[in-house]
Design goal:
With about 150 residues, the protein is mostly beta strands. It has two domains: about 35 residues, no CATH class; about 90 residues, Immunoglobulin-like, CATH 2.60.40. It is built from one helix and nine strands; from the N terminus they run αβββββββββ. It has a four-stranded antiparallel beta sheet with strand order 3-4-9-8, with no helix packed on it. It has a three-stranded antiparallel beta sheet with strand order 5-6-7, with no helix packed on it. β5 and β6 form a beta hairpin. It is elongated and about 100 Å long.
Length: about 150
């Protein structure tokens, strides 16, 4: 007995994306059987805000559930690097997870310092899951008003 099978070209594209993602070290897209919901797991990178005022640049990184001991901030050759890991909770007996959407694992974020940042005065603080890196501006960055006399 022959039966017709519905051909879905997008399904084949999704399968190809999964294979290519695996080759490049990314986690493939998972589609739950019998539903239309798809869930794409991605590598985790903390979200950051970068702000500037007259005196400094401020980088704020959201690092929920990352321990201070598992966080490393380095500055080398004009590049600021944030590195760390958020560990997956251990599954407890009698506890069953129905959904895990938050990303876990190692992360690395790097930022090139602006030319006017003073790398020798960089400092960082970590409180309540937020890392704040202060990059003071150097003397050359400050503007100076000059009076121009008209003759």
């Amino acid at each position: 007995m022959n039966s017709l099978v519905h051909w879905d070209p997008l399904k084949e594209l999704g399968e190809m994306e999964n294979r290519l993602s695996t080759w490049f070290g990314h986690v493939p897209v998972r589609k739950q059987v019998g539903t239309e919901e798809s869930l794409k797991l991605v590598e985790w990178a903390p979200l950051v805000d970068i702000a500037e005022d007259d005196k400094e640049y401020l980088i704020k990184a959201e690092l929920p559930e990352v321990k201070k001991e598992e966080l490393k901030v380095t500055l080398k050759d004009g590049v600021l690097t944030l590195r760390g890991e958020r560990k997956l909770e251990k599954e407890e007996k009698g506890k069953k997870y129905h959904r895990v959407e938050r990303a876990y694992g190692s992360f690395l974020r790097s930022f090139s310092l602006p030319d006017d940042a003073d790398a020798s005065k960089v400092n960082a603080e970590f409180k309540d899951g937020v890392l704040k890196v202060h990059l003071p501006k150097g003397e050359k960055a400050k503007t100076k008003d000059i009076d121009v006399k008209v003759a």
